């Protein structure tokens, strides 16, 4: 299989050893560049996650892999779009979940709550990724304050969950977590308006 990256071409065996060498080469190229890893294009298919698994599952057929990198600006912009999309879609779901928690939570309500916690973890990691890079994001301090609120309120939410106190869970989400989603959503949207 061939790897195309940064105007260079490399050839590797279609085997586990070849895949290991391919991944080592990709990592080496990323470290030596001033760009960020975006994804791989493998025989015309865009692969954004679980790259090694995809390669190993399709090792016999793979002919060409193209390494896709992005600039700092593109990387940050893509993360902001993802933050906006996630919070924009999450806000109505959170409101619906809160209503269910106040009334009669179902198994689906509890599953949605678990997804919310995973989503908050993703938001936290995304914000930390952006914060580690030099950027000029409008309203970034507000986003960081929202993350600080998550840090404060998540232990309270976890305790309420352990006690299966659906009213307290709903209160924490409605008055502490949901407003942070709305702030992050509004601040990321402001950045699109600025550009």
Structure explained in plain terms:
The protein is of the alpha+beta class. It is 68% helix and 13% strand. The protein is built from six helices and five strands, in the order ββαββαβαααα. Strands 2-1-5-3-4 form a five-stranded mixed beta sheet. A hairpin with a 2-residue loop joins strand 1 and strand 2. Helix 5 packs antiparallel against helix 6. The longest helix is centred in the middle third of the chain and has 31 residues. The model has no long low-confidence stretch (mean pLDDT 94).
State the strand order across the main sheet.
Answer: 2-1-5-3-4
Radius of gyration: 21 Å
Q: Stretches where pLDDT falls below 50 for ≥5 residues?
A: none
Helix proportion range: 55-70%
Q: How many strands in all? A: 5
**How much strand?**
5-15%
Q: Mind describing the biggest β-sheet?
A: 5 strands, mixed
- Counting helices, strands and paired strands, the structural category is alpha+beta
Q: In sequence order, what are the helices and strands, one letter per element?
A: EEHEEHEHHHH
Q: Count up the helices.
A: 6
Q: How far from one another are the termini?
A: 40 Å
The overall pLDDT average reads: 94
Described by the principal axes of the CA atoms, the overall outline is elongated
């Amino acid at each position: 299989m061939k790897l195309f990256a940064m105007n260079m071409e490399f050839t590797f065996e279609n085997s586990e050893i070849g895949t290991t060498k391919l991944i080592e080469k990709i990592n080496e190229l990323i470290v030596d560049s001033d760009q960020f890893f975006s994804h791989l294009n493998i025989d015309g298919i865009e692969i954004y996650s679980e790259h090694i698994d995809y390669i190993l599952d399709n090792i016999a057929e793979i002919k060409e892999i193209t390494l896709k990198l992005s600039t700092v600006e593109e990387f940050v912009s893509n993360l902001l779009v993802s933050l906006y999309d996630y919070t924009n879609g999450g806000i109505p779901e959170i409101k619906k979940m809160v209503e269910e928690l106040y009334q009669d939570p179902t198994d689906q309500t509890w599953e949605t709550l678990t997804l919310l916690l995973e989503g908050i973890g993703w938001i936290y990691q995304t914000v930390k990724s952006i914060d580690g890079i030099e950027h000029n994001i409008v309203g970034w301090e507000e986003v960081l304050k929202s993350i600080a609120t998550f840090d404060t309120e998540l232990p309270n939410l976890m305790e309420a969950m352990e006690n299966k106190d659906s009213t307290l869970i709903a209160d924490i989400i409605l008055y502490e977590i949901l407003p942070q989603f709305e702030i992050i959503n509004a601040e990321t949207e402001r950045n699109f308006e600025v550009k």
